[in-house]
Amino acid sequence: MLRRKGAFSSFIIRLAVIATTISVATMIMATAIVTGFKYEVREKLFSFWGHVQVQPRSMNTTSIIAPEPITRNAELERKIKGTKHVTSINAFAARPAIIHAGSAMEGIQLKGITADYRLPSGIEILGSSIDFADTAYAKEIMLSAGMADRLDVKTGDMLELYFIEQGSVFPRIRRVKLAGTYHTGMEEIDRAYALCDLRLLQRINGWGADKINGYQLSLDDDAVADTVANRIYYNYLQPPLTTYTMMDIFPNLFDWLNLQDVNTRVVIGIMAIVAIINLAAALLILIVEQVRMVGILKAQGMATGQLQRIFLYHAAMIAGVGIVAGNILALGICWLQIKTGFLKLTEASYSLKYVPVKLYWWQPVIINVATILLCILCMWLPSLYIRRIQPARVLQFK
User: Fold this and answer.
1) How many whole angstroms separate alpha carbon 336 and alpha carbon 32?
2) What is the pLDDT of residues 333-387, one digit of tens each?
3) pLDDT for the residue numbered 1
4) What is the 3-state secondary structure (H, E, C) of the chain?
5) Taking a C-beta distance cutoff of 8 angstroms, is the pair 34, 53 a contact?
6) Is the pTM of this model over 0.85?
7) Which residues pair with 61 in a beta bridge?
8) What are the Cα distances from residue 247, in Å, to 212, 220, 263?
9) CA–CA separation, 281 and 167 (whole Å)
10) What is the pLDDT of residues 11-26, one digit of tens each?
């Protein structure tokens, strides 16, 4: 019987350790995946449009295309580039067009860029970038890989751009060559935008060489986008110019990303409850199993508080082993995912090919400390059962 009790106690302890390990590992991995997912999606957007834009004020803040052009200002550009956290500033123009290849046609937003504009290394590029050597304007274009597939074109093929003029019956047509394709993985960008020479759009719009739609600014930290935008607005800009962050232009996307935090809190809450219930149940079972020993120790004069501390110490050991094992398991899986990318996603649905993982050092620390504190508080309740054990009643049974 004693052997059977000991075996059952060992089983309960192992079960509690395993449950705590899985709970802690799940909390850490959920945090790492959601943090990584938000980071990667934001970086894809920032890499194409920057963190902050300087444009004329518009009633429609979600539109990239400003109603009126602005004049490039070298002094303003110098001041903005010297602002803390600003790493680059690029002039751009944007205009809708229709792209035609063979029997296929697609509506598109053309983004006009200058020779100093560089797509970040995180964006996949096939072929080459636009060649700006032509003194008039580069007769080349870059499409997303998805749009090139839909149009059934490849690098080097000729395309036609149709520009619809207000009040005109016939569109203006320009023939361009497909220099290369890019792939961000974000449907909002890949389906809607293409890159061309800024000078092409200036000519189509009838603008001078110093006219643009605005500037895009890249920062070294997206968390300070609002601060930098306000600093530039109040220190350097005059009406009608203003600043917009990507959150102003793509509010729906950022609202969706913020909703992922709710999912994380739900997962962490459920896993924390599971860990606490398992540890509390394990402690209660251990106390009930050892009730005769408790009765003997009480009869010999051991204080109830000392008995509680004995069981709480063992429960804390169980929780500690589970938390350490959970950290090792979670961090091991995260490391393996970073190195191999064995967990994959459907890019069309999630804008990513692989499950992203990003973990800040303080996140597992907070999870571990919170788990320990909650477990200690909740393990104290079953330990109160020791106060109700009466030596005279438990020692009369052998």
Assistant:
1) 13
2) 999 999 998 888 877 677 778 888 998 889 999 999 888 888 777 777 666 666 6
3) 44
4) CHHHHHHHHHHHHHHHHHHHHHHHHHHHHHHHHHHHHHHHHHHHHHHHHCCEEEEECCCCCCCCCCCCCEECCHHHHHHHHCCCCEEEEEEEEEEEEEEEECCEEEEEEEEEECCCCCCCCCCEEEECCCCCCCCCCCCEEEEEHHHHHHHCCCCCCEEEEEECCCCCCCCEEEEEEEEEEEECCCHHHHCCEEEEEHHHHHHHHCCCCCEECEEEEEECCHHHHHHHHHHHHHHHCCCCEEEEEHHHHCHHHHHHHHHHHHHHHHHHHHHHHHHHHHHHHHHHHHHHHCHHHHHHHHHCCCCHHHHHHHHHHHHHHHHHHHHHHHHHHHHHHHHHHHHHCCCECCHHHHCCCECCCCCCCHHHHHHHHHHHHHHHHHHHHHHHHHHHCCHHHHCCCC
5) no
6) no
7) none
8) 22, 17, 21
9) 77
10) 777 888 888 899 899 9
When computed from its CA atoms, the radius of gyration of the chain, rounded to whole angstroms, is 31
The closest alpha carbon to 20, from 253, 386, 317, belongs to: 317
Q: Which residue has the tokens 């500690």?
A: 320
Whole-number Å distance between alpha carbons of 194 and 94:
10
- Burial of residue 243, with CB atoms counted within 10 A of its CB: 0-12 exposed, 13-18 middle, 19 or more buried: buried
User: What pLDDT was estimated at residue 264?
Assistant: 85
Residue type, 96: P
Q: Is the dihedral of CA 54, 56, 62, 63 positive or negative?
A: negative
**Predicted local distance difference test score (pLDDT) of residue 313:** 79
Distance CA 113, CA 50 (A): 13
Strands 52-56, 241-245: pairing kind:
antiparallel
The tokens describing 212, both together, are 């643009």
Residues of the chain with pLDDT under 50: 1-3
